[in-house]
């Protein structure tokens, strides 16, 4: 008899978990239930995965939670290295990553494992002229990946639909308990909770969870695009004022993301002009090569064609990957609270969830 699995949430975490479960288990029926899906014509800010950059930028772990999470980023990177070769239509592309810090914390200078481990071609930038031109006291370079989120999410969705015959259901849930009231869902189903902020069984969200508002700009780079300096790299800059500014080329002609903001517990779901102005002011100094020139006035400008607003689902204490038994034996595997690292942690988190799932299924078969 097949085990019924219900994945709640269809962002990058929910879809990645669903794909891995389908690949690892033959005797399962998988259903994905979500309010938002990648193929929706319009995406709300709450559907964070659609608004991501997205790229992988390693960083030194600052606490116990980050120390536990950084190996999961390397599992994702290992998976993406294979995917970039076997399935280039996923949009996963390996490029040069650059970090330039104006006021580097000591943990960067110490080069801990969480920053440098398994980062191909990692090197410190020693050229003083280059550092000066980047307004930086510290620089590092390495091989990393970028993806075009809308393409990647639909790649996962199509894989589930065509290769695995997964069922999809749209629902605006207010509790995980509601899942079991859906006629098509078995009462013995195992739930995989990938709801970002952590929807709870009896309603509400994990009290440890909170949103981090992010606003970024999608920019048309000067032509020819492939000749531009940011076509095959992603660059992140830290200023003395604490602001981080980055640019991420979205593969497959997706433009360049320039960002951004990091605003905890800010619930404003529309573009804020003051944020746009602040990002552009910083980007003018750091990424002037991304600016076009007005043919009439000769004035330099960023050709912004979209402003993105999304809510990164953060959680005090870090990501929650845990089994919870409720209501006399119903089983929930939680996988939420990844903040701004959803893509970076996605496959690593899915492998941890799958290990718990395999244990559950083994116990059920005893």
Automatic annotation (TrEMBL):
GO cellular component: cytoplasm
Binding site for FAD: 48-49, 195
Annotated GO biological process: D-amino acid catabolic process
Superkingdom of the organism of origin: Eukaryota
PROSITE patterns referenced in this protein's UniProt entry, alphabetically: DAO
Cofactor(s) this protein requires: FAD
All residue ranges annotated as the FAD dependent oxidoreductase domain in the record: 4-353
Protein name: D-amino-acid oxidase
Organism: [Candida] railenensis
């Amino acid at each position: 008899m097949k085990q019924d699995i219900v994945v709640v949430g269809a962002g990058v975490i929910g879809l990645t978990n669903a794909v891995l479960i389908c690949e690892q288990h033959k005797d399962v029926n998988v259903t994905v239930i979500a309010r938002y899906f990648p193929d929706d014509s319009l995406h709300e800010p709450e559907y964070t995965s659609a608004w991501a950059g997205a790229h992988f930028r390693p960083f030194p772990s600052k606490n116990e939670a980050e120390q536990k999470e950084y190996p999961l980023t390397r599992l994702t990177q290992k998976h993406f290295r294979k995917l970039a070769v076997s399935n280039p239509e996923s949009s996963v592309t390996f490029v040069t990553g650059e970090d330039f810090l104006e006021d580097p914390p000591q943990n960067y200078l110490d080069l801990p494992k969480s920053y440098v481990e398994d980062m191909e071609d990692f090197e410190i930038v020693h050229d003083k002229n280059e550092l000066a031109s980047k307004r930086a006291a510290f620089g590092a370079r390495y091989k990393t990946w970028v993806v075009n989120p809308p393409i990647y999410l639909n790649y996962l969705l199509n894989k589930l639909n065509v290769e695995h015959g997964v069922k999809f259901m749209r629902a605006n849930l207010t509790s995980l308990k509601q899942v079991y009231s859906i006629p098509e869902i078995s009462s013995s189903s195992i739930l995989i909770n990938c709801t970002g902020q952590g929807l709870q069984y009896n309603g509400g969200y994990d009290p440890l969870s909170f949103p981090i508002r992010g606003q970024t700009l999608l920019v048309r780079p000067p032509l020819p695009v492939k000749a531009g300096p940011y076509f095959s790299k992603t660059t992140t800059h830290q200023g003395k004022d604490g602001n981080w500014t980055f640019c991420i080329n979205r593969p497959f002609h997706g433009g360049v993301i320039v960002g951004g903001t990091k605003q905890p517990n800010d619930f404003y779901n529309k573009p804020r002009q003051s944020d746009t102005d602040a990002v552009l002011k910083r980007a003018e100094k750091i990424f002037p090569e991304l600016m076009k020139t007005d043919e009439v006035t000769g004035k330099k400008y960023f050709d912004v064609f979209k402003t993105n607003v999304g809510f990164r689902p953060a959680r005090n204490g870090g990501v929650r990957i845990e089994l919870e038994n409720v209501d006399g034996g119903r089983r929930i595997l939680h996988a939420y609270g990844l903040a701004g690292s959803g893509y970076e942690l996605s496959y690593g988190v899915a492998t941890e969830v799958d290990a718990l799932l395999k244990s559950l299924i083994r116990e059920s078969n005893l």
